[in-house]
Fold this sequence. Notes:
The complex is a heterodimer of chains A (about 210) and B (about 220).
Chain A: H1 2-41, H2 48-74, H3 103-125, H4 130-152, H5 160-178, H6 183-190, H7 197-205
Helix pairs in contact in A: 1-2, 2-5, 3-4
Chain B: H1 2-9, H2 24-53, E1 61-62, H3 63-92, H4 96-128, H5 137-142, H6 150-177, H7 184-209, E2 213-214
Helix pairs in contact in B: 2-6, 2-7, 3-4, 3-7, 4-6, 6-7
Amino acid sequence: xSSRLVDRVKDLSKKEDVILNLISFALAVGFIIFAIAxxxxxxxxxxxxxxxxxxxxxxxxxxxxxxxxxxxHANGMLKMPGAGGExxxxxxxxxxxxxxxxxxxxxxxxxxxxxxxxxEVFLAYIHVPLHIMLTILIGLSLIKAALxxxxxxxxxxxxxxxxxxxxxxxxxxxxxxxxxxxxxxxSSALRYRFNGGGSATAVExxx
Amino acid sequence: xxxxxxQLTATEWSGGTLPYHVGHKKLGMWLFIxxxxxxxSALLIGYSYVRASSDQWPTPFKFSPxxxxxxxxxxxxxxxxxxxxxxxxASARRDFKKVRVWLGLTMLxxxxxxxxxxxxxxxxxxxxxxYPWTLPHEWLERWPQASPLFGATFFGxxxxxxxxxxxxxxxxxxxxxxxxxxxxxDVEIAGLYWHFVDLVWMFVFPLIYLLSVxxxxx
Lengths: 207, 218
């Protein structure tokens, strides 16, 4: 009798889990649709308002996605990317002994870092248009930063909880900083133009 | 006993008491690194903002001395990061002599970076006449509408980074002197800081130097 009751309660809470997760998944999808609709309707994508709405709605989508993803992971339907199938966090070692890496691994990381740096310098040697140059440089620098953080700083071998605490915070804050960036184009377009460079320098030399 | 171990090592979502599985000092250093990364990203984004909103921006670094010079600086910093990793690995083996040697090499790389960087600053200030709020006269003739904030962004960002390198060298010195009394985690934390200094340069170098290469005619 009582065991049947317990079973029913468990069953009910399972169903409740499913329903709540479905709701938050639907909300996340809604925010993503909102972000996409914003791109198509805003006209210019690179404006403060548009970027702000995008950043906020994608962040909301992420927040609502966390619970369903954790639920899927807990029920074994979702393997963590990068974990390679087997669990990363060793459960029962009290002494914090974790993988330190081998000299060969560190040398190959160093080789990659040096190689990517030389690619960047080579791009500076040949003439590349500024926008393309900026994009490539930022991309390569992000790769280098990821290599340093993951292997030299061991973050790849720490618990997922530490990674989830540190990295998303940084990414979200940098995105929020970047939201203000399009304003620079506007302030450039709105500026009063002096006649000729001479007077401009005279004014600015007064600082 | 088993229950106790379970509580200490349970996953973060099951109420484990060591949710991150790192010591408090290491967690503190990680949090400091994230906040410092935000400081630097704010500075770099501010620099990009000023540059994008200016009519002109000086691109004074000639490939032949300047960029090669700063590339050598980058190589110093990158290899010092490698020696730091080797030092941490030696510390994991409790091999204190090796720890001292590797940390010494790391400090040497950091000092080489500092000396080269200061030499470059001296060249820019004394020979070129670049100051935080004013551009040299020759630059103004070449880029008449250039923003005078070039010096402010350059000295501000590289100066703050240089300060971090200096602090890092002193920090590593303190760690190397206390090699025997340190726990392994202390050395690891010093390593975290040093790699972070290296990581910041991975963004400063392309954004400040490689985007300001002088291609001659403009």
